[in-house]
């Protein structure tokens, strides 16, 4: 009996489980651009454009490969506006009694498919190296689920950078070498250019018209939209940027938003590249002596470590994960995150590049926008919605654990052993933002003191009951307690004033 094969916008893998399970001569592939998916958060324009353009290109590829594809375009007559609505419509049209798909990467859509009036089989997504079942097995009986131990298992499982049973070079992790600030460099090779083809131009016009009020600009759209392009992006990164990736991984520069980062996350998350092929390419470059171990290891750890680990956590922790608020923070997300005015140079730059490129690298996400929201007491649900909306690579399985867990400590320490907070000194060390800022990073208090310096102590002070017992934080509390009582009082008072200014979007 004929089945529908539902291919979602982030399931653009020709060997995906659902296509493998289907019969090309009988079954009908269905893909749909629908309102329910464009509107559950107000996505960045480039994100909608990339997903639609990549979906259209993928559908063409399937047709060329002999599949029957029922493709619903955005705004087309009859478009029911939701995935389940489209399943019902296509089922009737093609006389199909059931559908098969890869289980979606978020609880919301998994539930919607379960509630669909016709049966929809959700197959495990085997594009990941660690299945949900394997992760549950790893997590069973463990007191804490730290990434580093998970990562070692994944190294053993994949054999990547292994010398027999031991890690290549004798250490699992070379992060100690990966914390250098970067200098402006005219010879740094940035991302390759991807000129939009006809399909992409059509989609860019559609998005400009239909999503005019969404955050972000389309002018900087420079993403590959098919596997071919994604493979070029991978080859470019391995040839030009991987060698220095590790060393400058945490660096930030005002005029260089990309540095040595790969920009491969959207391709991995849409399914245009597989995690293993990406890591094997990095391992080969190391074996050929073209890149140092700290870079190859650091890069591979992000993918077989962090990426697989956060997905494991998301499904292991369950649908309530995104609603957690361990630190009981309830302030609103400042308007500056949507481009509103702020004198904070680092925040302004991180947001501006996010608006222009739908991209910021990890340390900007963690130590600028994330750090500031956490220190400023912002409701983690609002923070999470922002990250889910504004980044090109944001899908809930990866965005939520990074935001709620790693960045906002809203999960109470499932992912992070301590909150990722810092004063301005860290940002000053790792970036060139502070030199041209209206605030002074050297000032710990008083007029013009960097907001990070004030809010850092306010955060620690207001959460003393939660963190003072954490051995990794005891020394910080000791240094705070050693300060003169009148200084502490003054800093906390000025932090309160700053919080009020933030609430009024005047900072
Ligand atoms: P590179 O720096 O070149 O890293 C290589 C690859 O490693 C990335 O392509 C990515 O696939 C993977 N990777 C690196 N760090 C992580 C991580 N922490 N979790 C998962 N994969 C990782 N990543 C997303 O893909 N989608 C998100 O929605 C997302 N939201 C984030 C929110 C916050 C608050 C933070 C702190 C991080 C978030 N990340 C997210 C992780 C990371 O910032 C991005 O994966 C990375 O910046 C993507 O750019 P890149 O491809 O140039 O990465
Ligand atoms: Fe950011 Fe503070 Fe530096 Fe200004 S002084 S750029 S607010 S860290």
Summing up helix and strand content along with how strands pair, one would put the structural category as: mainly alpha
Shape: globular
Distance between the termini: 63 Å
CATH class descriptor of the largest domain: Mainly Alpha
Percent of residues in helices comes to 40-55%
Largest sheet: 5 strands, parallel
| Hetero ligands | flavin-adenine dinucleotide, iron/sulfur cluster
In which order are the strands of the major sheet placed?
3-2-1-4-5
- List low-pLDDT spans: none
CATH-assigned homologous superfamily of the largest domain: DNA Cyclobutane Dipyrimidine Photolyase, subunit A, domain 3
Overall pLDDT confidence = 97
CATH level 3 topology of the largest domain: DNA Cyclobutane Dipyrimidine Photolyase, subunit A, domain 3
Write up what this structure looks like.
- This protein has helices at 17-21, 35-39, 45-64, 83-94, 107-114, 132-139, 147-158, 198-210, 227-240, 242-245, 265-270, 275-287, 293-317, 345-357, 362-375, 380-390, 396-407, 424-430, 451-462, 464-467, 474-481, 485-503, and strands at residues 3-6, 28-32, 68-72, 98-102, 120-123, 162-163, 166-167.
- It has 507 residues and is mainly alpha-helical.
- It has 3 domains: 3-123, 3-Layer(aba) Sandwich (Rossmann fold); 132-188 and 241-317, Serine Threonine Protein Phosphatase 5, Tetratricopeptide repeat, CATH 1.25.40; 335-503, DNA Cyclobutane Dipyrimidine Photolyase, subunit A, domain 3 (Orthogonal Bundle).
- The chain has a 5-stranded parallel sheet with strand order 3-2-1-4-5, with helices on both faces. The protein has a two-stranded antiparallel sheet with strand order 6-7.
- The radius of gyration is 23 Å and the shape is globular.
- Flavin-adenine dinucleotide (FAD) is lined by residues 261-265, 268-269, 299, 302-303, 306-307, 310, 361-362, 365-366, 370, 387, 391, 393-394, 398-399, 402-403, 406-407.
């Amino acid at each position: 009996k004929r089945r529908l094969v539902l291919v979602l916008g982030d399931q653009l893998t020709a060997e995906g489980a659902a296509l493998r399970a289907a019969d090309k001569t009988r079954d009908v592939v269905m893909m749909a651009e629908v309102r329910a998916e464009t509107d559950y958060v107000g996505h960045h324009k480039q994100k909608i454009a990339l997903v639609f353009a990549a979906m259209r290109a993928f559908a063409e590829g399937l047709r060329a490969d002999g599949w029957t594809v029922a493709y619903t375009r955005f705004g087309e007559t009859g478009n029911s506006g939701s995935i389940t609505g489209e399943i019902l419509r296509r089922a009737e049209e093609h006389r199909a009694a059931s559908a098969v798909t890869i289980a979606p990467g978020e609880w919301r859509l998994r539930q919607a498919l379960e509630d669909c009036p016709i049966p929809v089989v959700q197959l495990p997504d085997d594009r990941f190296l660690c299945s949900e079942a394997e992760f549950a097995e790893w997590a069973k009986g463990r007191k804490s689920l730290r990434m580093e131990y998970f990562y070692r298992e994944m190294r053993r499982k994949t054999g990547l950078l292994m010398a027999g049973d031991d890690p290549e070079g004798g250490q699992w992790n070379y992060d100690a070498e990966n914390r250098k600030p970067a200098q402006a460099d005219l010879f740094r090779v940035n991302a390759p250019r991807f000129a939009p083809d006809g399909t992409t131009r059509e989609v860019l016009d559609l998005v400009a018209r239909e999503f005019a009020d969404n955050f972000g600009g389309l002018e900087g759209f420079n993403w590959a939209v098919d596997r071919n392009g994604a493979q070029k992006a991978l080859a470019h990164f391995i040839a030009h940027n991987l060698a220095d990736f590790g060393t400058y991984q945490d660096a930030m520069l005002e005029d260089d938003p990309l540095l040595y980062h790969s920009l491969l996350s959207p391709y991995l998350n849409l399914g245009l590249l597989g995690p293993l092929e990406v890591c094997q390419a990095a391992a080969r470059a190391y074996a050929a002596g073209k890149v140092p171990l700290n870079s190859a290891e650091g890069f591979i750890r992000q993918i077989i470590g962090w990426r697989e680990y956060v997905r494991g956590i998301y499904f292991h922790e369950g649908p309530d994960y995104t609603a957690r608020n361990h630190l009981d923070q309830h302030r609103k997300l400042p308007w500056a995150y949507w481009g509103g005015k702020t004198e904070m140079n680092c925040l302004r730059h991180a947001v501006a590049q996010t608006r222009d490129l739908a991209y910021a690298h990890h340390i900007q996400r963690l130590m600028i926008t994330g750090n500031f929201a956490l220190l400023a007491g912002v409701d983690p649900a609002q923070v999470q919605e922002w990250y889910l909306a504004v980044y090109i690579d944001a899908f809930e399985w990866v965005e939520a654990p990074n935001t709620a867990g790693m960045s906002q400590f809203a999960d109470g320490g499932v992912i992070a052993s301590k909150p990722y907070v810092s004063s301005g000194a860290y940002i000053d060390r790792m970036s060139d933002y502070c030199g041209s800022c209206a605030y002074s990073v050297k000032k710990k208090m008083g007029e013009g003191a960097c907001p990070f310096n004030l809010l850092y102590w306010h955060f620690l002070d207001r959460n003393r009951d939660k963190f003072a017992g954490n051995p990794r934080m005891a020394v910080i509390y000791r240094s705070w307690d050693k300060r003169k009582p009148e200084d502490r009082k003054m800093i906390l008072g000025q932090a309160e004033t700053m919080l009020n200014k933030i609430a009024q979007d005047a900072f």
